[in-house]
Design brief:
Low-confidence stretches: 1-6
Shape: globular
Bound molecules: benzoyl coenzyme A
Order of helices and strands: HHHHHHHHHHEEHHH
Structural class: mainly alpha
Length: 330
């Protein structure tokens, strides 16, 4: 199994009887649907789990700008360019809300960014795939942001107040992102046979990586049980993945495209689509840093950070100058 980089100290779920009185009172508050706020007492493992998940989420937002940034200069119309720019800017905003939410747990943004830049921290596997043609902008908005919404809507009700509140605004913006992606796909599918083929090709390449975004299968998910008990996770990885398939297949049909899965079939009895086996070796490989773009993504992020050093220095110098006592004017 891939290593858990953050040791939260939780090895197995403990029953209520096994919890210390303070932990038990904490679990009772969670079970009663009370939001946990930064100054409240919390178990150290809860704090570490949240820092892990929220910071991975923040890193995903800012690394997630890179595959789309690749297409700003080549968007086919001025309107598409303006929409794409606005979307990418939103992702930066999401990163900032999430870093701020993580900071409420007592970790600094510098520490979090150092972990990203050294390759120690994870970010979503999906952003290690290349965007090789304009249809990829459609597929990313539709499938990647679409999957993000499915994962994040429940997080608006998670137990940690600052994370839950950040998610409300993020989800509203993700909804616009998913629609703009589907709009690009619709335009291509109504276009020439070559354009429709571009849309199919993008769907073929993004379908399986989008399903992997939801994480390993429930049987392999090391963090799920404890995160579910703490209401950091409200649905399992497999439940959300199934929701994505059920929601997206009719959209594929509406576009007149084909899901690249020979095993996909509607099950009348369960009311769900059955789908083929995910290639988990590909997922593990991407998590180990060996996806098509892992190295390029990290290099680009580190360079952007280093290139911005003069600006951060200028901000600090400006703040110091204004903090100095001003000479009194007689
Ligand atoms: N990629 O026990 P599990 C976006 C890791 S932003 C990489 O199931 P957990 C967008 C997992 O971290 C999308 N790693 O873990 C942005 C764990 O390793 P560690 C990001 C993955 O946390 C810009 C190990 O595998 N969304 O959509 O219970 C533009 C075992 O997994 C992945 C979020 O971050 C993956 N796909 O569940 C457009 C949402 N999956 O940490 C769009 C918040 C699993 O133990 N995060 N791993 O070393 C979550 O909901 C949960 O963290 C996950 C994983 C469902 C992702």
């Amino acid at each position: 199994m891939y290593a858990q980089l953050v040791d939260t100290g939780t090895q197995s779920l403990r029953s209520l009887e096994e919890l210390a009185p303070q932990e038990r009172a904490f679990q009772d508050r969670i079970d009663a649907g009370v939001k946990i706020e930064p100054k409240d007492w919390m178990p150290e493992a809860y704090r570490k789990t949240l820092i892990r998940q929220i910071s991975q989420h923040a890193h995903s937002e800012i690394v997630g700008q890179l595959p789309e940034g690749n297409w700003v200069t080549r968007a086919p119309t001025l309107q598409r360019k303006a929409i794409l720019l606005a979307k990418i800017q939103d992702e930066a905003g999401h990163g900032l809300y999430l870093y701020s939410a993580a900071e409420t747990l007592g970790v600094s943004r510098d520490e979090l960014l150092a972990a990203l830049h050294s390759g120690k921290a994870k970010y979503s596997s999906i952003f290690n795939y290349p965007t090789i043609n304009w249809a990829d902008m459609g597929a990313v908005g539709w499938l990647v942001d679409g999957s993000a919404i499915i994962n994040q809507i429940p997080l608006c009700r998670c137990s940690y107040g600052p994370y839950a509140r950040a998610m409300i605004r993020v989800c509203k913006e993700e909804s616009f992102h998913a629609r703009q992606g589907f709009d690009i796909m619709m335009a291509l599918c109504k276009g020439s046979p070559e354009q429709k083929q571009m849309a199919q090709d993008a769907l073929n390449r993004w379908w399986w990586p989008a399903l992997m975004m939801f994480g390993p299968s429930d049987a392999e998910s090391v963090n799920s049980a404890q995160s579910a008990q703490w209401r950091i996770k409200l649905h399992s990885n497999d439940e959300l993945r199934q929701r994505m398939v059920d929601q997206t297949v009719p959209q594929v049909e509406y576009l007149g495209l084909n899901v690249p899965d020979p095993d996909l079939r509607w099950n009348e009895d369960t009311g769900h689509y059955e789908f083929g086996e995910i290639d988990w070796s590909e997922f593990h490989n991407v998590l180990k840093g060996n996806g098509p773009c892992n190295r390029e993504r990290l290099r680009t992020r580190v360079k952007a950070y280093e290139d911005g050093q003069w600006f951060r220095d200028a901000l600090v110098a400006h703040a110091d100058k204004h903090a100095e006592p001003q000479p009194r004017v007689a």
